[in-house]
Each structure stands twice: as structure tokens, then as C-alpha cells.
């Protein structure tokens, strides 16, 4: 295969890959995810990076933003929808650096990781589950 005529996947391409990854997850898992909005951007905003204490925007491949299921209440009024952000450029950078994983699989990994936060799991919880799988 020659790469001289290949372009990097666009934001729309990434969104399509994320949708395909989500659609491929078990139905019960998808159902529990509920009303989460998925969004693909090139990078996190400066405000997000600053709030997380991250200087290099390539260090953040995804983000869950919202109230996780373990902290929700029926008394919550007017809450913003929960969102999962996937950051195209950092994911592409990690994919190129690793060289041992398909891009679709890496997108799925980041997507599932961020959905884990929606379920109330910490990074340590998610890493432990991944290690045990």
C-alpha cells in the first residue's frame, strides 16, 4: 500500500468511526449510556487543559464532561447533557507513536474509557478493569 495519496481522517471520519465503535458495543452497555452526547474536536480547549493542569494538548485524547450516573439525582434541574469528547489530533499522534493498534480500535478504547467515567468509574478503576480483561 502506498500512503502518498492518503489523507488523515477528518473530524467527520473520526465521528463515523466513533459511531461505528459505539454501535458495536453490547446493547445493554449502549442502553446504560443513555443520553450522552459524543463530540469530536481536534484538541481540548485551552480552558479545559488549564482546568486539568495539562500543558501539552497532545496529552489529552478524550474527556467526559457531566454528572456521572453515580452522582445523579431525580432532583437535578436543568443539568447540561453529559458529553464525551474525543480529540482527533492527540489520538492520531498516539496511534502513530504506538504503531501496534488499529485506529478504529484506539478510538473505541478512548470512547469506552470516557463512557466509564459516565458510569462513575475513576481512571484507576478503568485501568484495573482493562488489566483484568
From TrEMBL:
InterPro entries: Zincin_1, Zincin_1_sf. Signal peptide: none annotated. It comes from the Bacteria. This is Neutral zinc metallopeptidase.
Amino acid at each position: 500500500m502506498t500512503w502518498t495519496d492518503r489523507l488523515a481522517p477528518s473530524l467527520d471520519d473520526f465521528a463515523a468511526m466513533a459511531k461505528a465503535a459505539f454501535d458495536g458495543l453490547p446493547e445493554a452497555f449502549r442502553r446504560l449510556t443513555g443520553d450522552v452526547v459524543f463530540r469530536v474536536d481536534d484538541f481540548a480547549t485551552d480552558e479545559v487543559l488549564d482546568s486539568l493542569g495539562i500543558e501539552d494538548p497532545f496529552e489529552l485524547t478524550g474527556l467526559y464532561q457531566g454528572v456521572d450516573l453515580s452522582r445523579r439525582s431525580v432532583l437535578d434541574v436543568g443539568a447540561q447533557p453529559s458529553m464525551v469528547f474525543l480529540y482527533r489530533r492527540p489520538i492520531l499522534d498516539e496511534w502513530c507513536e504506538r504503531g501496534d493498534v488499529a485506529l478504529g480500535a484506539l478510538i473505541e478504547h478512548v470512547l469506552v474509557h470516557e463512557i466509564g467515567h459516565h458510569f462513575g468509574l475513576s481512571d484507576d478503576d478503568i485501568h484495573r478493569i482493562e488489566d483484568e480483561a
